[in-house]
């Protein structure tokens, strides 16, 4: 049983109510007695996840070593931000999930209403403020390690909820640094695949260069960052690369474009030459969890005035208002 006093604590921090009803059996727990003395032990309840039809403590969720996601990275995923208890653009995220599954010929084992029920249950079991739903579907467990796909393999479905640090827009004004890297990934980057070894390699290179991220260039054209879309601002015009198989069509990317245009800002979706990075007034990286991050230094060169630009400030104000409205809806 959970005492009402826990309501002011951070998510997943709870006070034991009595030794007899304490699910964690804390023998040293000075739990509430008949006298009503306050408990001296704070027990951290473990996050609950969903795996193949079951809701489990995260430490108890196990996947077979023969799962094709584990052996081959044979699966797709989505990350859905949750603001004010409401998933951001859920329909669009599930649309993209279906597109990824169709592209890799992977059967979607759940209906949209079933996905929704799982998300609602996990958000209820993992309370908090800003959060992110991570879902992953692999092709499932095969009897042997073999690239060929056998008949009757059942997809593995895993879903969890992660806490997300609320965006610190004041801190973000200082901006982040990045490097430019040749995009050596495969030619199906529009699939949200769990096989991210190339992205890991590029992010590792960025970290070794003591910067936050890398902006990727393929055949002289900007594609995206390791886990974000790229926007440029020059002379008051906001530009972002056209959707193609060379980049993932970000839900936040589309939302930023929609909100910018609705508020009178000019946005172009077009091919962006890598040389435009050197002359841009502003560069942004957008994603579901990063939101809108200004790049103020690229390859040891200052972008714009070396701080977040005026158009970034406008866009962040618009985006923040949208988030508040979502939470109040």
Can you offer a commentary on this structure?
- This protein is of the alpha+beta class.
- It folds into three domains: 1-45, no CATH class; 48-163, Aminotransferase class 4, branched-chain amino acid transferase, N-terminal domain (D-amino Acid Aminotransferase, Chain A, domain 1), CATH 3.30.470; 169-328, D-amino Acid Aminotransferase, subunit A, domain 2 (D-amino Acid Aminotransferase, Chain A, domain 2), CATH 3.20.10.
- The chain has eight helices and 17 strands.
- The protein has helices spanning 68-72, 90-103, 112-125, 169-172, 197-208, 251-262, 276-279, 310-328, and strands at residues 13-15, 42-44, 48-51, 54-57, 75-83, 86-87, 131-138, 156-163, 176-182, 213-218, 221-225, 229-234, 237-240, 266-269, 282-287, 291-298, 301-302.
- The strands form three sheets. Strands 9, 10, 11, 12, 13, 14, 15, 16 and 17 form a nine-stranded mixed sheet that branches. Strands 4-3-8-7-5-6 form a six-stranded antiparallel sheet. It has a two-stranded antiparallel sheet with strand order 1-2.
Present the secondary structure layout.
Layout: E1 13-15, E2 42-44, E3 48-51, E4 54-57, H1 68-72, E5 75-83, E6 86-87, H2 90-103, H3 112-125, E7 131-138, E8 156-163, H4 169-172, E9 176-182, H5 197-208, E10 213-218, E11 221-225, E12 229-234, E13 237-240, H6 251-262, E14 266-269, H7 276-279, E15 282-287, E16 291-298, E17 301-302, H8 310-328
């Amino acid at each position: 049983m959970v005492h009402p006093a826990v309501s002011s604590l951070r998510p997943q921090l709870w006070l034991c109510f009595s030794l007899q009803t304490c699910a964690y059996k804390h023998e040293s727990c000075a739990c509430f007695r008949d006298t009503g003395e306050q408990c001296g032990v704070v027990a951290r309840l473990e996050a609950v996840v969903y795996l193949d039809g079951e809701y489990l403590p995260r430490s108890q969720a196990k996947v077979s070593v023969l799962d094709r996601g584990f052996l081959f990275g044979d699966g797709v995923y989505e990350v859905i931000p949750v603001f004010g208890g409401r998933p951001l653009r859920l329909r669009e995220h599930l649309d993209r999930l279906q597109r990824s599954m169709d592209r890799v010929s992977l059967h979607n084992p759940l209906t949209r209403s079933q996905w929704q029920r799982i998300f609602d249950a996990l958000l209820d079991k993992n309370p908090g403020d800003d959060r992110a739903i991570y879902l992953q579907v692999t092709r499932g467990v095969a009897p042997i390690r073999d690239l060929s796909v056998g008949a009757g393999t059942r997809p593995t479905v895993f879903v969890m909820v992660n806490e997300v640090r609320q965006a610190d827009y004041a801190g973000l004004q200082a901006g982040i640094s990045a490097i430019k890297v040749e995009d050596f990934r495969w030619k199906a980057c529009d699939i949200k695949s769990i096989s991210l070894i190339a992205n890991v390699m590029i992010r590792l290179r960025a970290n070794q260069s003591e910067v936050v991220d890398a902006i990727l260039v393929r055949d002289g054209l900007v594609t995206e960052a390791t886990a974000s879309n790229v926007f440029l601002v020059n002379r008051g015009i906001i530009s972002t690369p056209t959707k193609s198989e060379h980049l993932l069509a970000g839900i936040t990317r589309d939302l930023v474009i929609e909100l910018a245009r609705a508020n009178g800002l000019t946005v172009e979706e077009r091919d962006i030459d890598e040389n435009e990075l050197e002359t841009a007034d502003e560069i942004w990286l957008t994603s579901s969890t990063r939101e809108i991050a200004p790049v103020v230094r690229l390859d040891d060169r200052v972008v714009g005035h070396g701080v977040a630009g005026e158009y970034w400030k406008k866009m962040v104000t618009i985006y923040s208002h949208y988030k508040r409205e979502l939470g109040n809806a």
